[in-house]
Amino acid sequence: MSKNPGSLQVQVTVPSHFLCPISLEPMTDPVILTSGHTFDRASIQRWVDDGNFTCPLSRQPLDPTDMEDPLPNHTLRRMIQAWYLQHAGCGVDRLLTPRQPPSLKDLPHLIDILASAAHNSPAASPHDSLDALLKLARLSTDRPRTRRIIIHHGAIPILSKLLSRSFPGSPPIVSSVAAVPTPLSHTIADEAIKLLDLLVDPISCAEIDLQHLSCHEELTFSLVNALLRAATLDSRARVSTILTRLQPPLCLRRKIGELQGFIAALADMIREDDGLLSKPALGLLIDICEASNRNRTMATEVGAVETLARLLENRLQQSGGDENDNVEMVMKALELICQCAEGRAAVAADERIIAVIVKNINAAYERSAHHAFHILLLVTKYVQEPEKVKAAALREGALFKVICVAQSAKNSETRKAARRLASALSEAMPPEQLSKTMKII
């Protein structure tokens, strides 16, 4: 360890027994295993979470207590702290005492605290509920393998009821017990959403019946209510992500979309054009629009077509993998909306929307192009004045782009859609201009 206070170069060597055998870094929270060896807590937990069940040094099987709640080595920690304090004048930063992490032994008690709050028990304390949520979140963050244990202790239905109490009112009311919202209750709701975001993820839920959870209307509508009423952008984005992961059945997605203000709230989130909000909201809008023609019509009525077109315009000025993913999602959402007459009419009514769709066609991004082709095919086939749409597309060089994708696309369905669109566009192009275009290609 080398520090440079002022102009003096000082070399400080950390004692070897202060180093974690796994990371070879100074330990900040040493824990001792039943084998007698000491490791830094974070390192040994990562070791276990990676599927290793033997001591890294002795190779002996780890005791269950080693994996769940290793014993702090207070003596060594005090020695390390004393050494850091002694060498503070050499530029070594003081080692702070680590906060005692929650234990799996505390899990039933923490769940009981939340259950009391969810059922409006007179003994429930909001501050205790908040503390329990924070401890469970830390446990889920530090030890991802414990998420499944927390789920099997019934945390998800309890968190669902807790959200229902935190956001009373309609639509929709999912709890028969209404509570007066307070700043603390909103904070509790935000932390409950963060914990749900940790628990409901593809990895930790791989071995549980996620489809059963998605059929649980109380959970779904608690999340919908939270999306409509949450005060922070972070919570709204997390709720959108959770709802997308849950994959509610078609009938439930249809019902969600018909709730007053829900699709408008998604459009508002997309309109923010914030990476935190727009991508989760786009994913949820796609799920909702897939459910029914009525939902697609409602999306058109709240201005989703114009909002999505503006998002495409903004993406033309940007580049990168995430942005290309967003373009694909926007194109997919527009394609779904164009499956209703109102959506097609909204696209055809504004030549700028046609132009921005064509400008975003790129042979390098085949899936985005695939959705763009279907948008243009739907609009040119079913609107009253298709020639105007074709003319607007041709002015942006659509035929050239479509033929290029048709020649390079790997997916047969994309090539087929490209050929159909090229045929439709070529019918609207003057023969001499068509001849010039074909010569260029």
TrEMBL record:
Q: Which Pfam families match?
A: ARM_PUB, U-box
Which InterPro entries does its entry note? ARM-like (IPR011989), ARM-type_fold (IPR016024), ARM_PUB (IPR058678), PUB22/23/24-like (IPR045185), RING-Ubox_PUB (IPR045210), Ubox_domain (IPR003613), Znf_RING/FYVE/PHD (IPR013083)
Q: Which GO terms describe its biological process?
A: protein ubiquitination
Reactions mediated catalytically = S-ubiquitinyl-[E2 ubiquitin-conjugating enzyme]-L-cysteine + [acceptor protein]-L-lysine = [E2 ubiquitin-conjugating enzyme]-L-cysteine + N(6)-ubiquitinyl-[acceptor protein]-L-lysine
Give one GO molecular function term: ubiquitin protein ligase activity
Q: Which SUPFAM superfamilies match?
A: ARM repeat, RING/U-box
EC number(s) recorded for this UniProt protein: 2.3.2.27
Protein name per the record: RING-type E3 ubiquitin transferase
Species of origin reads Ceratopteris richardii
**Lineage summary:** Eukaryota, Viridiplantae, Streptophyta, Embryophyta, Tracheophyta
